[in-house]
Description:
74% helix
Amino acid sequence: MPIPAYILVAIAAYLLGSIPTGYLMAKAKGIDIRSVGSGNIGATNAMRVLGKPIGIFVLVVDALKGFGAVLLAGVVARQLNEFLPNVFTDESLANPETKMNLAVIAGLFAVLGHNYTCWLKFKGGKGIATTAGVYFALAPLSVGIALGVWILLFVTTRYVSVASIAAAAALPIAVWLTQKNLLLGIVTTLLGALAIYKHKSNLQRLRAGTENRINFKK
């Protein structure tokens, strides 16, 4: 499939991923979430600042951005095929490898949109929920393994950041072991590294002993 298809899928996925859910929910209540709590626009800080119901809503919507971007890849490709029949063919769209590559590109750019949203001067979240949404669509077994790691680490340490970093490391390993698409493996490795990098402030607080723990009793 020609390069323009990948470019248009990437742009569409980026714009979907760039919707700053946590920021918008806080703004509706007159709060700039970037100036309170950890300053992050993701679900964990939204839950801390705005309460559990809104935090869960942000988590779900951020995950749906990733899931929707993967589904969007096929829709965009089919529309291109309709409008430009001499450039795009049904045969190319039916190729499993092409379909997977388009979906992987869509997932990658959805996460980049969330992490570096153009609406907030290219500053965004850490991409854990959006990445999970992408991989529920692309590789459900792999994300199930990563989710199991997240739950285990969260229950034993009560640190969301520790659980998220461990899951970000586990996901690429699971993908390499269970999937055969090279691009998927490479992109997953890059996204895992990016997620860990985005937690650098959490790692600093963990070393300093100032990272917030979740209090189950509370």
